[in-house]
Amino acid sequence: MEASAAHLEIEPEPREWQPRATWVAARLLCGAAAFFFAAFVFAYFYLRSLNSNHAWKIGHVSAPVGFGVAIVLVLVASAVLMYIARTQPARMTAAGTAAVLLALLSVVLQVIAWTTLGFGPSSGGYASVFIGWTAFYAVWTIPCIYWMQTQVATSRRVARTKPPEADPELMRAETEACSFFWTFYVAIGVLTFVILYVL
After folding, report:
1. Residue 15 within any structural domain of the chain
2. Contact of 181 with 144, CB cutoff 8 Å
3. Which of 58, 87, 123, 188 sees the fewest Cβ atoms within 10 Å?
């Protein structure tokens, strides 16, 4: 019986593996996001080229370009600030907090933009892709904000209390993973803007 219990015991993963695992996890998450939003890219070009019964745009369907520009600029600024927070640990709290607030502002701007639309998801293929794509992008942004805020809060706590269990290498890896994914996600947002507002 004792041998069987010992056999079921699982050894913990070595701590030195965690930074590499975090690095890989961030890249896998980027792949998941890319495949998810690729569905909207496909839907956009497929429905636009098909244009069944001239239903690509039904009625007056026009995206609010001003809001689109504001959202993409806020997102890019947030990604730049998160990169600064990653590369300059002394500025982590200030730059990271600003990155979080700008990311939150992008969601608020998107919600306001939806209230100005003169069309709904039934106003043709473009309208359905526009609303679906922007809605899912805003929803995915919220966990990103939580992740960034977690990095900022952890950095602030460690700087203030200096706990003995803090692992600087792991913290750097976590901040790098967060910044890398957020930059990749903002790049998807720029692609969103180009396809939905420019093309």
Report:
1. no
2. yes
3. 87
